[in-house]
Amino acid sequence: xxxxxxxxxxxxxxxxxxxxxxxxxxxxxxxxxxxxxxxxxxxxxxxxxxxxxxxxxxxxxxxxxxxxxxxxxxxxxxxxxxxxxxxxxxxxxxxxxxxxxxxxxxxxxxxxxxxxxxxxxxxxxxxxxxxxxxxxxxxxxxxxxxxxxxxxxxxxxxxxxxxxxxxxxxxxxxxxxxxxxxxxxxxxxxx
Length: 191
Known about the structure:
One of its GO terms (biological process) is vesicle-mediated transport. Belongs to the TVP23 family. The chain is mainly alpha-helical. Helix content is about 70%, strand content about 10%. A hairpin with a 2-residue loop joins strand 1 and strand 2. The radius of gyration is 22 Å and the shape is globular.
């Protein structure tokens, strides 16, 4: 009787990919703590300076952990910016397929958390613009931090780019087919 292979292991392909539970925890932890602090900080403290500093430190910790640790461990991607006298250049790196062992659940969690955090900060900016929050600068910083990580990792991942192109193509095909059907139905109904 064959035993089921662990997640990430192919039958006969050697040892399974290592699980990075601590990296998964901190990838989500700093995002959640920064978001929760943003929404409850005025309840905890009346000082704008204290609330601002705590939130920016939490955002910076999330940015650093995502950029320097969880991106490498969970999805095998890395990005950075090199600055010199002539300007700056973005660098994107993907570990080769033979070297990289990525667990599907870790990859899903990584991308979901990055996209959800960025979506949250976009929503927080919109809410702050309409005057429901006086912490617009914090929301903008959250969007810059989480958005730059999402953009950097998206540029690293050929797979993510291919998935987005496939989604756009299928959505545009569906929309075009719907528009064509609507035009045909309209033309037929006039006859």
